[in-house]
């Protein structure tokens, strides 16, 4: 039985052996002429194709990539869906095209089929007869190609032409079949390795760069050469006897012909500009050509770009192995950013990091040619990783830390998608970018962490040696990585490439054992001698992610480190140290993507005091009021003194502490304050507190946030508990949805602090359910918010009704608010609609009514400058506006009722902006606020019915930034108030039009 089973197993293994690697053989012969005025390159093309697959082919497909950059393409449709306008609106002659005509295959005319019509980036032909394995055929065709005036990887601008993916290009046939794939904004290219013989007829003064070597003709380098001391290295003889004849037939007057030749490349790129400046250099037998623009002399010229290109080549040669081609051309293209092509990088700048990234793609994409739309991480993640490694070797680390922390926040809130998806399957373009560049880069960094730097280097070299000039995929890379590292990496590859698992390891039990030996001294006495300690540590995996974890024991005089495999939920490791252990640290280098580092430490000596806020290390600092510190690996705890004033407690001093982890968790506050009675009329000397627990680690849930406040502040005490959920549909656009539930209990115990115009002497308990959505639509910024709930009011005698017959113990409270903003010429236009109601059978308590001027009193509860009688911003002589309610900013802030509808309108014009700091933006504004009280209880102060109340005026606004805090100052002048007797800023006998002012630290809405 056992033998039979073994045999079966062997057979199964043999059967699942992958078929031997093969790739198709392709040769292009292109003859093309550029007509500059129309921007059209017209040519004829012969493709020789050998079917080296084990399959019989019945169709043949070509990419016509330039047809993406025009209306009607799938690219444009994806742009429209994500709110981008690039090629969607282009008209003739601005959009790009690649038209193919008179196609003959095997000598027979064939008809084009566009399988993704109206997109025409793929054209398919039925073969006149099947192409058997190992058989060859020839295709011939004529075509016209024009780049678009809006650049994207390709483009044209006047006499400048960046030709990329410009000719009918053979679709890859691999083990998955024909890789017919339209071009989308997400995902790049995939090409068959081929030889290219390209004859070009261009204006005589053009300077050009291209894939391959110029066999004959003048690319214009000699004339453009800025460094006469360095003659141009053409590499004309690089291909030896395979070089096509130097046959550059005579061109028409004012024209020239250049013949280019390249082998073993899966694309042929081309760029022309009569004003290109040339500088050359070399690395071994690789010629370096740099082409830059007039004006670039100091940033590209004087050898700078040449040197940086050589620095990149040197690094990549060391990392992977010898460059596979005769030359590399680095040129300054029309578009910013950069794109890689075999033997050519088109860059928007000469920045070293960009050059290392794009030139790195000549290895990972060009020579190790992956399918870029299927496995973008294998080129973008790979080259981003090697670029960071390059910086590390010259002493500029940090690439890992920044990326890891950013990705972590996306993981925590469930926005991440795995790097292995097909490009157009991502939620949106930002998600695609994040997954393949950043998460892809982290994959390689994690792999290097697991196998070590030296092994990683050997993996890269083996991978290059084995797979250069071939198509690669995850399986190819993983096989090499496992073979070189002697590790089963299946779990790691699955988790990092095919999922977005969270990782969290914590220290469990810790036991320390002293190791002693017994020695017999010369007098025969037995001495027990300590030779060291062994610390046994339980490593607990609290999430599904599995990765090896370093476990360090910090002892008095030394540190011991071992690595836990991290595969089991609970794993014991032993760490020997020579001196007495003090502390255990998991993942001291923060390399495991562990989301919760606060459970990664434990004191062994127990002499350390227990600290509020977590077991982990705490970074304590003086909090500078406007910026809160945030750390990846520990809790921060800032503190600062506070001082404010109100008429009851007088000058009040306090001490506040704020904690934070990751800018997302443990955002707790503790504030203790003492009213000194100085300068007050009541001489109240209270000790108050405010404690907030926000987003505790234990309650982590995607997109969720929790707040629990307990407080005793200035005559009020109570509890607020709130749970919120917020999620944006896409990373960079689309609606943001939110929901919340809030339970608030506020009791009144000392009316001396309270403005009786804002508070009744009753306690309230209220539950509110909120929901909202905000989004952008065209130029509009739209928001809609609603809340629904109710509560009860009580006093010392019980429910308020028993003591105050006019006060309803149970009340309903709800509001709906919608706002819309958009630019309107040089103005910003904003409009808000509001309806609010708070009522039972009788009135709600004063603090729960709806206010004409702004926010209700309980909204100011946490603000010591607003919440109590005589506080700094709400004194008799100061007119403050807290946005909310009906928003009639010119109205008396005490004016409230049971129900209001309101309309607010603002027109703002920015008159000055600068990057940051105080007064970084100044604006002038005009506004009007109109409201209408509803119901019998809508009364003014004298008891008359209050229906319409409106204002209008002008304002001055300024935007400020101090530290991480952004705020505004807003002076509004409600020069018109429809009821001057109800204005915030009023004197006897005022008319509707008077000079009045209000101030605020917030936008009006
Ligand atoms: Zn890239």
Describe this structure in words.
The chain has 1005 residues and is mainly beta. It is 14% helix and 40% strand. It contains twelve helices and 51 strands. The protein has an 18-stranded mixed β-sheet that branches. Strand 38 (716-728) and strand 39 form a beta hairpin. The longest helix is centred in the middle third of the chain and has 23 residues, at 429-451. The termini are far apart.
Topology, element by element:
Layout: H1 2-15, E1 25-35, E2 40-50, E3 57-63, H2 74-81, E4 97-105, E5 108-109, E6 122-131, E7 136-146, E8 155-157, E9 160-163, E10 169-170, E11 173-174, E12 177-178, E13 194-203, E14 208-210, E15 213-216, H3 221-224, E16 255-265, E17 270-272, E18 277-283, E19 286-292, H4 304-319, E20 327-332, E21 338-341, E22 344-347, H5 352-363, E23 368-370, H6 380-393, H7 399-412, H8 429-451, H9 453-467, E24 470-472, H10 474-485, H11 490-498, E25 505-520, E26 526-541, E27 549-555, E28 559-564, E29 570-577, E30 581-586, E31 601-603, E32 618-622, E33 635-646, E34 650-660, E35 669-675, E36 687-694, E37 704-713, E38 716-728, E39 736-748, E40 763-777, E41 780-795, E42 798-799, H12 800-803, E43 810-824, E44 827-839, E45 850-851, E46 896-897, E47 899-913, E48 921-934, E49 948-962, E50 965-977, E51 998-1000
Parallel strand pairs: 1-13, 19-20, 20-22, 23-24, 32-33
Antiparallel strand pairs: 1-2, 2-7, 3-6, 3-10, 4-5, 4-7, 8-9, 9-17, 11-12, 13-16, 14-17, 15-16, 18-19, 21-22, 25-26, 26-29, 27-28, 27-30, 30-31, 33-34, 34-35, 35-36, 36-37, 37-38, 38-39, 39-40, 40-41, 41-42, 41-43, 43-44, 44-47, 45-46, 47-48, 48-49, 49-50, 50-51
Helix pairs in contact: 4-5, 5-6, 6-8, 7-8, 8-9, 8-11, 9-10
Bound molecules: zinc ion.
């Amino acid at each position: 039985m056992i033998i039979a089973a073994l045999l079966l197993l062997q057979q199964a293994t043999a059967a699942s052996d992958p078929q031997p690697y093969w790739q198709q053989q392709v040769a292009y012969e292109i003859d093309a002429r550029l007509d500059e005025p129309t921007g059209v390159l017209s040519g004829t093309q012969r493709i020789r194709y050998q079917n080296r697959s084990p399959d019989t082919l019945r169709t043949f497909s070509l990419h016509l990539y330039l047809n993406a950059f025009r209306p009607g393409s799938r690219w444009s449709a994806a742009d429209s869906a994500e709110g981008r306008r690039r090629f969607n609106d282009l008209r003739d002659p601005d959009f790009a095209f690649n038209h193919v005509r008179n196609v003959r295959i095997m000598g027979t005319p064939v008809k084009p089929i566009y399988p993704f019509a109206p997109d025409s980036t793929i054209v398919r032909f039925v073969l006149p007869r099947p192409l058997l394995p190992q058989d060859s055929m020839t295709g011939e065709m004529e075509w016209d190609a024009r780049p678009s005036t809006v650049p994207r990887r390709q483009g044209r601008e006047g006499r400048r032409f960046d030709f990329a993916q410009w000719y009918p290009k053979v679709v890859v046939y691999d083990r998955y079949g024909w890789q017919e794939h339209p071009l989308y904004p997400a995902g790049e290219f995939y090409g068959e390795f081929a030889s290219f013989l390209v004859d070009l007829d261009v204006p005589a003064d053009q300077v050009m760069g291209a894939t391959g070597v110029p066999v004959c003709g003048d690319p214009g380098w000699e004339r453009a050469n800025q460094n006469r001391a360095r003659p141009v290295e053409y590499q004309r003889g690089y291909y030896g006897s395979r070089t096509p004849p130097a046959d550059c037939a005579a061109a028409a007057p004012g024209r020239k012909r250049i013949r280019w030749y390249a082998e073993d490349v899966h694309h042929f790129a081309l760029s022309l500009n009569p004003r290109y400046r040339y500088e050359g250099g070399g690395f071994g037998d690789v010629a370096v050509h740099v082409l830059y623009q007039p004006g670039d002399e100091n940033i590209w010229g004087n050898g700078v770009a040449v040197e940086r290109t050589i620095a990149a080549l040197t690094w990549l040669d060391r990392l992977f192995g010898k460059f596979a081609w005769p030359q590399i051309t680095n040129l300054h293209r029309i578009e910013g950013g950069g794109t890689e092509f075999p033997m050519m990088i088109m860059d928007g700048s000469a920045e070293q990091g960009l050059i290392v990234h794009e030139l790195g793609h000549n290895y990972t994409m060009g020579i190790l040619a992956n399918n870029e739309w299927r496995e973008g991480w294998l080129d973008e993640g790979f080259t981003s990783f090697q670029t960071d490694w390059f910086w590390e070797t010259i002493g500029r680390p940090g690439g890992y830390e920044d990326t890891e922390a950013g990705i972590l926040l996306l993981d925590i809130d469930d926005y991440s998608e795995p790097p292995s998806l097909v490009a157009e399957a991502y939620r949106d373009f930002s998600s695609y970018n994040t997954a393949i560049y950043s998460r892809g880069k982290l994959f390689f960094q994690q792999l290097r962490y697991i196998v070590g730097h030296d092994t990683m280097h050997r993996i890269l070299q083996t991978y290059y040696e084995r797979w250069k000039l071939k198509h690669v995929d995850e399986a190819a890379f993983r096989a090499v990585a496992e073979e070189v590292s002697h590790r089963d990496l299946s779990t790691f590859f699955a988790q990092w490439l095919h999922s977005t698992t969270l990782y969290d390891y914590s220290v469990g039990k810790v036991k320390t054992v002293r190791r002693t030996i017994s020695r017999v001294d010369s007098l025969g006495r037995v001495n027990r001698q300590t030779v060291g300690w062994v610390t046994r540590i339980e490593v607990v995996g609290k999430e599904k992610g599995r990765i090896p974890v370093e476990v360090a024991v910090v002892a008095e005089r030394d540190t011991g480190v071992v690595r836990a495999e991290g595969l089991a939920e609970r794993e014991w490791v032993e760490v020997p140290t020579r001196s007495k252990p003090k502390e255990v640290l998991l993942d001291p280098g923060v390399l495991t993507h562990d989301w919760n580092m606060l459970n990664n430490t434990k004191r062994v000596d127990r002499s350390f005091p227990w600290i509020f806020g977590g077991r982990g290390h705490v970074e304590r600092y003086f909090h500078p009021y406007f910026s809160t510190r945030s750390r990846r690996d520990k809790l921060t705890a800032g503190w600062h003194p506070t001082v404010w004033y109100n008429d009851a407690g007088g000058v009040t001093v306090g001490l506040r502490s704020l904690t934070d982890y990751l800018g997302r968790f443990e955002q707790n506050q503790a504030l203790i304050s003492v009213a000194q009675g100085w300068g007050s009329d009541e001489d109240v000397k209270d000790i108050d507190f405010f404690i907030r627990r926000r987003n505790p680690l234990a309650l982590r849930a995607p997109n969720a946030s929790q707040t629990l406040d307990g407080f005793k502040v200035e005559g009020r005490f109570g509890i607020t508990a709130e749970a919120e959920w917020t999620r944006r549909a896409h990373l960079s656009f689309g609606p943001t949805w939110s929901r919340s539930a809030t339970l608030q209990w506020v009791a009144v115990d000392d009316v001396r602090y309270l403005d009786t115009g804002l508070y009744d002497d009753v306690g309230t308990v209220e539950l509110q359910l909120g929901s909202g959505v905000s989004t952008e639509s065209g130029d509009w910024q739209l928001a809609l918010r609603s809340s629904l709930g109710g509560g009860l009011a009580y006093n010392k005698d019980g429910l308020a009704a028993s003591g105050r017959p006019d006060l309803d113990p149970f009340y309903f409270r709800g509001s709906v608010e919608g706002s819309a903003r958009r630019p309107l010429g040089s103005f910003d236009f904003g409009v808000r609609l509001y309806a609010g109601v708070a009522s039972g059978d009788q009135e709600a308590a004063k603090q729960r009514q709806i206010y004409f001027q702004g926010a209700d009193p309980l909204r100011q509860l946490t603000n010591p400058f607003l919440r109590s009688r005589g506080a700094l911003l709400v004194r008799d002589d100061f007119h403050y506006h807290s946005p909310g309610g009906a928003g009639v900013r010119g109205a008396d802030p005490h004016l409230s009722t049971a129900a209001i509808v309101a309309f607010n309108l603002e027109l703002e014009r920015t008159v000055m902006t600068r990057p940051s700091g105080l007064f970084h933006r100044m604006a002038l504004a005009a506004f009007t606020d109109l409201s209408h009280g509803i119901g019998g209880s809508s009364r003014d102060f004298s008891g008359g019915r209050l229906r319409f109340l409106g204002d209008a005026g002008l304002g001055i606004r300024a935007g400020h930034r101090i530290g991480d805090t952004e705020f505004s100052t807003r002076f509004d002048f409600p020069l018109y108030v429809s009821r001057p007797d109800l204005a915030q800023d009023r004197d006897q006998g005022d008319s509707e039009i008077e000079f009045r002012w209000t101030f605020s630290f917030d936008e009006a809405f």
